[in-house]
Amino acid sequence: MRYRLLGRTGLRVSELFLGAMTFREASPEVREMVDLYAEAGGNVIDTASAYGESEEVVGELLAGRRDRFVLATKYTLSRDPSDLNASGNHRKNLVLSLERSLRRLRTDYVDVFWVHMWDRHTPIEETMRALDDAVRAGKVLYVGMSDAPAWVVSRADTLAEWRGWTRFAGLQVPYNLLWRDIERELLPMADELGMSVAAWGPLAGGVLSGKFTGGAPVAPGTRVAPGSLGEREHAAARAVLEVAAELGATASQVAIAWTMARSRAVHPIIGASGPGQLRDNLGAAAVTLPDDALRRLESAVPFSLGFPLDFIGDAASAALGPEYRLLDGR
Fold this sequence. Notes:
The protein has helices at 28-39, 54-61, 91-105, 124-136, 150-163, 186-193, 231-247, 251-262, 275-282, 291-299, 309-320; strands at residues 3-5, 12-14, 17-19, 44-46, 70-75, 110-115, 140-146, 168-174, 196-200, 266-270. By secondary structure, the protein is an alpha/beta fold. It has a single domain, classed as NADP-dependent oxidoreductase domain (TIM Barrel, Alpha-Beta Barrel), CATH 3.20.20.100. The protein is globular and about 55 Å long.
């Protein structure tokens, strides 16, 4: 496992993050998964206030070794469906959610506190100031944003920069060979603003592991809805399986490695149903995809940046002069 800096900070984070969304109890199997991840060099565990018992389980599993991990959690989603103020990005929900998370996690601080999703009814100034207050109080070290439009994230980060508040160190968004939407606005924005990208769903709900293309039925309770798999999904899975066979890797390893090959800012969040699956996913850190393999994977599923990026790219030479192609820029 190799390490990178989290955003513009000096915090060292492993290239693969461990997602704890499925942790329901501190069973021997779940404990083994955390130990496997730590032995492989992983140091980031990502959970959320809305992930059922996950925070309590993580708190129990990290007892006595909490400071060795970069512990991340999220707030926004409802704590109480009967209370309208028990959800959203406003100060009241932030404060109460954070205090509950700290109790559950058995800690007096979290390393990374994510805004779980955009709440269009809360002024972004309120959210950023409340996050900064949590940092100044020592209960949060770094902050990030999850599942929001690029214009919201960039505006919030710029407000924080101008007002001397804590800026976003990271962005958490879905990313895989089938879901490449972030390449249009969010990934370039993260690169420009110096944010790390925590990528959830690198296997597209298991589709890119090839298990469904291999004939396995979609079981109830999985992230893949029955009947939702078409030729596009199977074409991507077949391409991943072919590249994996050539490289002596597994399909899951190739799919996860692809997200990292696209940008050094990307840290896939890996999850697993058990230690064996986690061990396999951790092997993605050792997979290097040749240029030809990257081209074949990406050509298997057509993707367009759309307007304005495709238009600007096509029109650049004509609009800015033929010598523009010689400019390396930054």
